[in-house]
Amino acid sequence: MRKCVKGFSLIELLVVMFIIGLMFGAVSLSVNFGGDPDDQLQEAAERLVEFARLAEERAVLTGEPVGLRLIPPAASADVADMEPSWRYQWQLYRAGQWFPAEEPLSSQSLPAHVEVSLQVEGQEVDLLAVENAAARENQTRGSGADEDQQQLPLPSIVFYPGGEITSFYLTLFDAEEVDRQQVLTSQRTGAVEMLDEEEALLTTAR
């Protein structure tokens, strides 16, 4: 008598992969930056890639788009509350609106000397202008609006449930030595990856 062997469904495999990703994220994404500027830059880029992989898995598993918002230091209207470095925030799209994502897709600050530039679909994105436009829109809603009614700026990069990702080049570079840089992209393979040093130089020379 032949035994019937039951395999794993796609959903079960995705759940297992996502749980593994969460466990990995809880450990590796909590590592502090090193002291050397080169190490800090590479660690920041590697951490962002790992977050991006979690974001991609979450979008596919839950059916909710996941967005990446890049926040410049000058984005705060209140100088006293201004962050000293670039930050990035993960967002979820629900009921027609973007909301901050839950752990482990938490907001992160980049090292103070690291600057950010972004190209989407071959066009340079003015990230400060994006933040300022959202701030002006929220001001028109009135200062009495609840915090949860405030509209978050639209993310510059989106991970879709079907596995697609916004086509982008994201460059992290040292403000004091611009040749020291790390380039992340989804352009070549459809997944977020870091370019090696030679590829990165060719990309920024375009």
Structure notes:
The chain is an alpha+beta fold and 206 residues long. The chain has four helices and ten strands. The chain is globular. It has helices at residues 10-28, 37-62, 127-140, 197-204, and strands spanning 66-71, 87-94, 97-100, 108-109, 114-120, 123-124, 157-159, 168-174, 177-185, 193-194. It has one domain (10-204): 3-Layer(bab) Sandwich (minor pseudopilin epsh fold). Strands 1, 2, 3, 4 and 7 form a five-stranded antiparallel β-sheet that branches. Strands 6-5-8-9-10 form a five-stranded antiparallel β-sheet, with helices on both faces. Helices cover 33% and strands 24% of the residues.
Keywords:
10 strands; five-stranded antiparallel beta sheet; 206 residues; minor pseudopilin epsh fold; alpha+beta; 4 helices; single chain
Describe the protein's topology:
Blueprint: H1 10-28, H2 37-62, E1 66-71, E2 87-94, E3 97-100, E4 108-109, E5 114-120, E6 123-124, H3 127-140, E7 157-159, E8 168-174, E9 177-185, E10 193-194, H4 197-204
How is this structure best summarized?
This protein has 206 residues and is α+β, with helices and mostly antiparallel strands.
- The H-level CATH homologous superfamily, spelled out, is minor pseudopilin epsh domain
Q: CATH topology, what is it called?
A: minor pseudopilin epsh fold
Number of domain modules: 1
Alpha carbon gap, first and last residue:
66 Å
Number of helices: 4
Major β-sheet profile: 5 strands, antiparallel
At CATH level 2, the architecture is: 3-Layer(bab) Sandwich
